[in-house]
Amino acid sequence: MKNQTKFLTVITLAICLLIDLNAQAETQNFNARDQGPSAEQMLARSNGGIDGMAFFRPVLSGVLYRAGFSGGDKSHTGLSAAQRQDLCKAGFSNAFYVDFGSNTDFNSTDCGENKLNYHKANSANTQEAMKVIHDIIKNPSKGPALVHCMWGVHSSGSVAAMALVQFCGWSDTQAKNYWEKARNNANCSGGCDKWIDGKFKQFKVDPKLTLTTEEQQRICPK
Q: Inter-axis angle of helices 155-168 and 172-182, to 10 degrees?
């Protein structure tokens, strides 16, 4: 009888913990520009409260997040209708599928008072994505953007790294080191140094997309 009582107690506590975690995910404020994410947050393993997502991580607080799909996206169909709705309801204004999405329907998703714009992006040409991110920074009423790829490792990570150079003044070396730490030991075709070096050779900081020191302090990593 005592063992049965202990078992029921453990089950009850587990259920309560699960409910609490789900509630936290639902109420997470993705719009908060709270002086930048920590190194731990930038490397955390989470789905961000969005079913089917993986490696959901902050890059610029309240402005830019990165992610991939749990199990990948071999069909290249991108975010499902349910995932788009969840992101829209969470306050996201834009999402980018980086380097893939050949079978993806890129369009807008309405969820009441908010709208999510879904774009195709290329890690070798990030100019348009950087403009959208800059616009979000300059307009705090706009929700954040999500960059994702198949797994949330290589391509989305390269765009995130470039955003850190563009908006936070990171050096290429700092950004590449971040990309390396965040790739979760995933293999790279032709070698990882060669892969990320090739992407950065095609990236240039846009002098038109400047930020104030105050803006950087609110969003850039600690």
A: 150
Break the chain into its structural domains and give their ranges.
Answer: 1-30, 32-219
Measured distance CA(157)–CA(68) in Å, rounded: 10
The number of C-alpha atoms within 13 Å of 191 and in the hemisphere containing its C-beta is 4
- CA atoms in the 13 A half-sphere facing the CB of 42: 25
β-pairing, 53-60 vs 64-69, is antiparallel
* Reported pTM: 0.87
> pLDDT-derived band of residue 71, with 50, 70 and 90 as boundaries?
very high
Size of the chain in residues: 222
Residue 91 CB partners (closer than 8 Å, separation 6+): 30, 31, 114, 143, 144
d(CA 89, CA 171): 35
Please give the Cα distance from 1 to 17 (Å, whole number). Answer: 24
Q: Whole-angstrom Cα distance, residue 16 to residue 192? A: 43
Element (H or E) spanning 117, and its range?
A: strand 115-121
Decide if 160 contacts 111 (C-beta within 8 A).
no
Taking only the tens place, the pLDDT of each residue in 177-215 is 999 999 999 999 899 999 999 999 999 999 999 999 999
- Taking each continuous run of H as one helix and of E as one strand, the counts in the chain are 8, 6
CATH class of 32-219: alpha beta
